[in-house]
Amino acid sequence: MIGEIKMENYDTIIIDAGLAGWILGYLLQKNNKNVLIIENQDLIKKNKLFGGIVTKKAYRLLFEIYSNNIEKINFKKYNTFKIKNNKITKETKNQKIYTIYRKNLDDFIINEFIENNGIILDKTNYDKIDFKNKIIYIFGNPFKYNNLVGTNGVFSKVRKDLIGKNQKMNFAIEGECLIENEMF
């Protein structure tokens, strides 16, 4: 458990944050919203087995959100390549990717949330959610919320509790789509 947890009303409760959830929590905190993040994993030991590639656009957005603080972590910058018939055909100098050890990125974003007075319950699962009255129960204690965000993907316990059944998918695909004439 990180920080002192008060049983009060929260503007937003985020469950199993992930990268997007931590950034959302940080931005809400910066806008004076009362945010609680419930994370089922141990944040000290949590380590993604994949990830760590950040596009130029994502890097720019991280820089806009965290300003110069993002430079505290050591991104490596690479050009991208076009591949045809399993051969590299040319280097695309205008498209860059950034790489980082994913744990370093996660730790940075979590620490920014904490330093901004973010409240976290880690190594914690919720008991049940009363969607009608906007109450989530944790260890039998009620926490009221205005907004509930379940950001833990297609296997979301929140989704199952909301619709009453598991998702039929067993995988998810994520990617960035470039929009014509979009400026980086």
Task: Kindly describe this structure.
There is one protein chain. By secondary structure, this protein is α/β, with parallel strands linked by helices. It folds into 2 domains: 1-48 and 103-168, FAD/NAD(P)-binding domain, CATH 3.50.50; 53-100, no CATH class. It is 24% helix and 32% strand. It has helices spanning 18-30, 56-66, 102-115, 157-163; strands spanning 9-15, 35-39, 53-55, 76-84, 87-99, 119-122, 128-130, 135-138, 141-150. The protein has a 6-stranded mixed β-sheet with strand order 6-2-1-9-8-7. A 3-stranded antiparallel β-sheet has the order 3-5-4. The protein starts with 8 loop residues before the first strand and ends in a 21-residue tail after the last helix. The relative contact order is 0.23. The model is unreliable at 170-179 (pLDDT under 50).
How would you summarize what this structure contains?
With 184 residues, the chain is α/β, with parallel strands linked by helices.
Task: Identify the CATH class of the largest domain.
Answer: Alpha Beta
CATH fold annotation of the largest domain: FAD/NAD(P)-binding domain
Query: Can you give the mean pLDDT?
Result: 77
- Major sheet: arrangement of strands: 6-2-1-9-8-7
Structural class: alpha/beta
What are the segments in which pLDDT stays under 50 over at least 5 consecutive residues?
Answer: 170-179
Q: What is the annotated CATH architecture of the largest domain?
A: 3-Layer(bba) Sandwich
User: Main β-sheet, in a few words?
Assistant: 6 strands, mixed
- The secondary-structure element order is EHEEHEEHEEEEH
Distance between the termini: 39 Å
The proportion of strand residues reads 25-35%
Number of distinct beta strands: 9
- At the fourth CATH level, what is the homologous superfamily of the largest domain? FAD/NAD(P)-binding domain
Count of individual domains: 2
